[in-house]
Write a structure and sequence with these properties.
Elements (H helix, E strand, L loop, with lengths): L6 E6 L3 H13 L4 E6 L2 H10 L4 E2 L1
Parallel strand pairs: 1-2, 1-3
Length: 57
């Protein structure tokens, strides 16, 4: 079996609960993730500079 690549996902949501449910659902479906949630403009700016995100939701 080939190891699955880790997908880098940045979730922009005012609610940590919504972001955590989305990330949890994706992981439950078998995705290997490195995920973060930005709930403010400042967090979004910081996180965008920290990594190369493949998916922005």
């Amino acid at each position: 079996m080939t190891p699955q690549a880790i997908t880098h996902i940045l979730v922009v949501s005012g609610s940590d609960g919504v972001a955590n449910r989305l990330i949890g659902n994706l992981r439950n479906d078998g995705m290997q993730l490195r995920a973060a949630n930005a709930s403010t403009d400042q967090e979004l700016t910081t996180l965008i500079k920290q990594d190369q995100w493949e998916i922005l939701i």
